[in-house]
TrEMBL record:
Residues 57-246 form the Flavodoxin-like domain. It is an enzyme of class 1 (oxidoreductase). Transmembrane segments: none annotated. Its cofactor is FMN. It catalyses: a quinone + NADPH + H(+) = a quinol + NADP(+); a quinone + NADH + H(+) = a quinol + NAD(+). GO terms for molecular function: FMN binding; NAD(P)H dehydrogenase (quinone) activity. This is NAD(P)H dehydrogenase (quinone). Belongs to the WrbA family. Residues 1-48 are annotated as: Disordered. Signal peptide: none annotated. It holds the Pfam family FMN_red.
Length: 256
């Protein structure tokens, strides 16, 4: 695996580290930015409490070595921080055999996160965030197989108008942080879904040049390296921001 700078076998099981300083993205910004452009700012965050409760954002992902999974969990934290919106984690079905996964040194998957076996469940979501590792600069086969299984929803345009975004993992800086999300937009276009990039709403953290950072205007991201690199505090802060941002956008679309 690891095509195009994608994921590579991990030398140890992923540890789910949480950010020790989620506000560190604002330190030492190389450009001058005011307080309104920090990573904590989200659109429409002053919405009234009369917004419809229990809006659901499905966070659907594929993770082989744990990098995308950790981003997904952190994104859920951001979604859940917005009143009236809940993030729900799902895995896509695995297509590789247990024998192959063992040879690739892939850790066992967390059984507490269910597999989304019935794509009809997607109709219940108010928005989506899809996460996946790269393979030659585009999404992994497992995630592509999941999208391929949504043909009936596509024929009936059941997902048309629903907002969606992406988050990714690559092995190297040139491995597809942008192209992996960019090439996935075609899936949304055929469904009539609304692509929601984060742009530069993360503020000063998007301009940091003093450390390696995954992520782009298309969405959050992490560099996996040889599989043992842990997501940085800045990468996790960007993931949490994406959850907050998407939740705020969904809330605004449902309750203008």
């Amino acid at each position: 695996m690891g095509k195009g700078g994608g994921c590579v076998p991990s030398k140890q099981k992923r540890s789910h580290k949480q950010s020790s300083n989620p506000n560190s993205a604002n330190d030492h910004a190389p450009i001058s930015m005011d307080e309104s452009t920090t990573q904590s700012s989200t659109p429409f965050q002053n919405l009234t409490s009369s917004s419809p409760p229990n809006l659901k954002i499905f966070i659907i992902f594929y993770s082989m070595y744990g990098h995308v999974e950790l981003l997904a969990q952190t994104i859920k934290k951001g979604v859940d921080s917005i009143e009236g919106v809940k993030g729900i984690l799902y895995r896509v079905p695995e297509t590789l055999s247990p024998e192959v996964l063992e040879q690739m040194k892939a850790p066992e998957k967390d059984e507490r996160i269910p597999v989304i076996a019935n794509v009809a469940e997607l109709e219940k979501a108010d928005g989506f965030l899809f996460g996946f590792p790269t393979r030659y600069g585009s999404m992994s086969a497992q995630m592509k197989g999941f999208f391929d299984s949504t043909g009936q929803l596509w024929r009936e345009q059941k997902l048309a108008g629903k907002p969606a975004g992406f988050f990714v993992s690559t092995g190297t800086q040139g491995g597809g942080q942008e192209t992996t999300a960019w090439t996935a937009i075609t899936q949304l276009a055929h469904h009539g879904m609304l692509f929601v990039p984060i742009g530069y709403t993360f503020g000063a953290g998007m301009f940091r040049m003093d450390d390696i950072r995954g992520g782009s205007p298309y969405g959050a991201g992490v560099f996996a390296g040889d599989g043992t690199r842990e997501p940085s505090d800045l990468e996790l802060a960007l993931a949490e921001h994406q959850g907050q941002y998407m939740a705020s956008v969904v809330k605004r679309l449902v309750h203008p």
